[in-house]
Fold:
Amino acid sequence: MIVLIAPENDIPNEIDLLTRLFEAGLQYYHFRKPHKNYEQHCAYLNKIDVKYHDRIVVHYHHELINEFALKGIHFQEQKRKDHIDNPGQYFKDLNMFGKTISSSFHEPEVLAACDFEFDYHLLSPVFASISKQGYEGRGFDVNHIDKTIIGMGGVTPDNLDAFKRLGFQGVGVLGGIWNTEHPIIAFKKMQQGFSK
Structure:
């Protein structure tokens, strides 16, 4: 399972590249644009062919799930801490039928102890980050945790086996695709690494 995180700031040809990634088989696109407001989120989504909307997970403006036929919503760590103790209240105005709910974690113990049943969990940093300078990897081993955990931090086509050995069911990637000269080729290599 490959989860592609959006570049925080728009990059040239982003929608075109994203469309080509969807065409290449991308199933999980985490739309994470902290500097965009609700209207800008809508404008961005409207540039993407609707046939790919069911592969998009939003980090901000979860109410977009009511306007667009998206894959699901994601809770960043602080938002999870703020809302997940009272999920009934949080979800009552969201059309969540058939949608995914995921969250970010930075400590395996916190992830293991979390009572809320997320569909999958992003855990970082496993290895030193490509997109965030000074974000050193911690080599988390999650083989003992019976949950779907996606490893993030320093993902490249060459270290997928290390993620698998550490117990991850997939990788969350940002710099390992967007910061490469050929994002589509990098993605396809990762896909091959997971189909082995």
Strands lie at 2-5, 28-31, 56-58, 72-75, 100-105, 120-123, 149-152, 170-173.
